[in-house]
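User: F-box domain-containing protein, Brassica carinata:
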Amino acid sequence: MWTMISNLPNDMVVAIMSRVPLKSLREVRLTCKKWNDLSKTQSFREMHIGKASTASKEGQSQML
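Assistant: Predicted structure for F-box domain-containing protein:
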């Protein structure tokens, strides 16, 4: 059985999107309205920037 990407649970979408580099987030937002709306929330932006900052400090790169 197939699941539409727009029907994925929010926690799964957040887990996926949190691993996307900031440079690529714009393209991910075009995936569906739900992903676009989620990426615009203050809590998501703060979480994503925090993860990117931590990875940068540790010398890690985030990969898609």
